[in-house]
Amino acid sequence: MRRKKASMKEIAEAAGVSVATVSRVINDNGRFSEETRQKVLRIIKEMDYRTNIVAKSLRTNISNSIGVIVPDITNEFFASIVLAIEEYCFPYGYSVLICNTNEDKEKEKMYIKDLLAKGIDGVIYISDYPIEEGDLNIPIVCVDRNPHNRNDLAVIESDNYRGGYLAGEELVKAGCKQMVVLKDYRNISVVINRMKGYYDALSKYNVNINEDLVINIEVNFDKAVEAVLKLVEEKISFDGIFATSDMMALGALTALKRSKIKVPKQVKIVGYDDISLIRHSYPAITSVRQNKDELGKCAAEVLLNMIDNGKVDQKHYVIPVSLIKREST
Amino acid sequence: MRRKKASMKEIAEAAGVSVATVSRVINDNGRFSEETRQKVLRIIKEMDYRTNIVAKSLRTNISNSIGVIVPDITNEFFASIVLAIEEYCFPYGYSVLICNTNEDKEKEKMYIKDLLAKGIDGVIYISDYPIEEGDLNIPIVCVDRNPHNRNDLAVIESDNYRGGYLAGEELVKAGCKQMVVLKDYRNISVVINRMKGYYDALSKYNVNINEDLVINIEVNFDKAVEAVLKLVEEKISFDGIFATSDMMALGALTALKRSKIKVPKQVKIVGYDDISLIRHSYPAITSVRQNKDELGKCAAEVLLNMIDNGKVDQKHYVIPVSLIKREST
User: Fold this and answer.
1) Closest CA to A70 of B108, B63, B74
2) Which residues of chain A have a CB within 8 Å of the CB of B87?
3) Buried (b) or exposed (e) across A36-56, using 16+ Cβ within 10 A?
4) Best label site of A147, A285, B28, B283, fewest CB within 10 Å?
C-alpha cells in the first residue's frame, strides 16, 4: 500500500492539535471544545481546501480514487489504455472512475466539476482539448496530448515521430513511389509529430512527397472509405497508403476491395495504433503499434506518485512504438 | 431537466427550519445558532443518511451522477452499452462514472463501496455476479443479468431465447446437419436462454442435437481457436458452428482457415452480439445482433425514473434481437 496523503497531518500541525482531534472535528463526534472546532475549520479554510473534499478525504484519510477522462470508450485504443490504468491502480486500493466525453467539451467540463466535487485525488486526461480549468489543484497526467498552457502536469505520449518514420520507411521499402496519406484533420501534436517522422523517412529515401495526396479527414471508417473511393473515381494513381489511425486504414482497405484493387499487390497499406480489428481483416494490415499497456501503466504510476509526493517528478515520458508487419505491405 | 430529489426539503421539514438554513448548516457558513446546527445534524442522522452523501447532495441539491459497473471495457459489446447510457444521461445533467471490474468480484465490491461513499444516485450493473451487498439502498438496474436474490431492482436484457432460436434456424436452413456449439461455460441466465432457443429451433426442424459437440469454454478468442483445432485434429466431422459470442466465432473462423477448411462451403458459422470485428473479417460472419444502443438507453431511462420516483415501475424489460446474415452462412 502506498504512503497516505498528509492532508490531515498538515492540518493538525497547523492547528496545533492532534490528528485524532482533527478527525473528531470533521466527523463531528463531539469530544472537542467549540474553540478547537473553530480553529480546525479556520485552518482548513486557510489551507484552501474545498470543504467537501477535506471532509471526505479526512474521514477516510484519503479519497483513494482517481478520474480518467476518455474521448471514446468504444475505441479499443482508448479502452486498452484505461484497462491498463485500472489494473495498475487496483493493487494500491485506488478506484478508477472512467468518464467518457465523446469528444464533447461541455461533457468534459461537467465531468471535471463532478469529479472534483466527489473529492478525487487526481485526474488522467486522454483528450485533445487544452485544459482550461484553472482551479484544478490536484495532480494531473495527460496521455496522448500535450497542452501548452500548463506546466504543472505530466505528459505521457507515444513516440509519434518514430511511428511516422517507421510507417514511411515500410512503404518505401515495399517499393511505393506515390503515397496517399489519410491524415487526421486536427492540428494536434500527436498528428504533427507523426507527419514529421513520415516526411523525414521519405526524404531520407529520396521519395517525392506529393502534398496533393495528403487528405485531411475525420478519424472515422466511413470517411476513409469515401476518400479512397473518390481517389479511385478520379483515376488518381497511387501505390501506397499511410493512414494515421487503423480505423482509417480499415476504411481504405474496404474501399480498395470494393474497387477490385488488390492489396498488397497494387496498393500497400500501413495503419497506426495496432487495434485488434486490423489483425483479423483480410489481408491483415501492417500497423505501427502503440504500447497501450505501457501508456496506461506509466500514466497511473506517475499520477499515484504525484498524489503521494504532491509534486511532478518528471514532466515528459515518451513510450516507444514498433512496426508490426502483416499482409498489407 | 428532471425533478430533483427531495432530501434537503425533507430534512428542513423534519427539523422545522427553512431549506436555506439546512443548506447553511451543511455548508457551515455561520449564519445559524449552535442549537439549530445540532438539531439539523440530529435529523440528518435520524433519517439515516450517510453524512458525506448528505453533505454533498444537499450542497448541490442532488448528486446528479450514476455509476456503471462493467466487466470488460475493452469488449465492444459492453463499451457500446455504456456509451448509450452516457448519451442518454448527459442531457439530464447526469454524470456517468464507469467502473471496470475485469470480472473480479473484489474489484466490484471496492467500486460499489467507493460509489456509495461518493453519494451517487443509482447504479447500472452489467455483470455476472449476483448482487450480495444488502445495503445498497439506492436504485439499481441490471443489464444482461438476472439476479435471483433481489426483487427491488429492474432487469434489462436481450431476447436471448429468440437469439438462440434464430441462430439455430439459420444454420439448419443453410443445410447444416452436424453442428458444434462453442458455448460460454458459465451457467448464467443469458447463456441458458440462448441454448434453450437454439435447441428448440433444431427440434422444430427435426435436426439431431449432438451433446458431444457442445463445447463449454471461456468467452475468449484463443480458447475458441484451440477448441476448433482440437476437433479438426480428432477428425470429428461437423458442418456448422454456433458460437454464443462473436469473439468465439472469430476464433472458430481463424482455426478453420488455419486448417484449410472453407467457410461457408464446408463449415458455416453463426456468432452472437454483432460486434464490428466480425463485419470486417473474411468472410464476414453472420451474427445475432443485440441492440446495444437500446439496452443502454432503456437501462438509463429506467434508472433515472427510479431515481425520480423512488420506486421500480416495471421489473423486466426484454429488448428484441435480429439475425444479421453475412458471408459465413
Assistant:
1) B74
2) 102
3) bbebbbebbeeeebbbbbbbb
4) B28
CA distances from B251 to A225, B188, B247, B281 (A): 27, 22, 6, 11
Residue A287 touches partner B, C-beta closer than 8 Å: no
A250 interaction partners in chain B (CB closer than 8 Å): 280
Taking an 8 Å cut-off on Cβ atoms, the answer to whether A100 and B90 are in contact is no
User: Cell digits for A220?
Assistant: 472515422
ipTM: 0.72
A236-to-A227, A232, A253, B212 alpha-carbon distances in Å:
12, 6, 16, 56
CB atoms A73 and B65 under 8 Å: no
Per-residue pLDDT of chain A (329 residues; tens, 9 = 90+): 232 333 667 778 878 888 778 777 766 666 778 888 888 877 766 664 433 444 444 444 457 899 999 988 988 889 999 999 999 998 888 899 999 998 888 888 888 888 888 888 899 998 666 565 555 678 889 997 766 556 667 889 999 999 999 999 999 999 999 999 999 998 888 899 999 999 999 999 999 889 999 999 998 888 999 999 999 999 999 999 999 999 899 999 999 999 999 999 999 999 999 988 888 888 899 999 999 999 999 999 999 988 887 766 667 899 999 999 999 99
Instruction: Return the closest-CA partner of residue B184 out of B76, B285, B272, B283.
Output: B272
In the chain, the amino acid numbered A117 is A
Q: Which of residues 103-142 of B touch A (CB under 8 A)?
A: 104, 107, 110-111, 114, 117-119
Set of cell numbers at residue A92: 494500491
Is residue A167 within 8 Å of residue A198, measured between CB atoms? Answer: yes
Helix axes A7-15, A34-46, angle to 10 degrees: 120
Does A66 contact chain B (CB < 8 Å)?
Answer: no
Are A118 and B56 inside 8 Å of each other by CB?
A: yes
Interface test with B, best of A118, A121, A258, A263 (most B CBs within 10 A): A118
| Grid coordinates given for A195 | 507527419
Cβ-based contacts of A76 with chain B (< 8 Å)? 74, 76
Residue of B nearest to A90 (CA): B107
Choose from A24, A41, A52 for mutation: most chain B CBs within 10 A.
Answer: A52
**Which residues lie across from B316 on neighbouring strands?**
B155
Picking from B43, B108, B118, B327 by the largest number of A CB atoms within 10 A of its own CB, the best residue to mutate is: B118
Q: Exposed (0-12), middle (13-18) or buried (19+): which is A314, by Cβ within 10 Å?
A: exposed
- B280 touches A at CB < 8 Å: yes
The burial class, CB within 10 Å (0-12 / 13-18 / 19+), for A260 is exposed
Can you read off the three cell numbers belonging to residue B231? 476437433
- CA gyration radius for chain B? 25
Structural element, H or E, at residue B191: helix B189-204
Angstrom distance (rounded) from CA B226 to CA B220:
10
Half-sphere exposure of B302 (CA within 13 A, CB side): 27
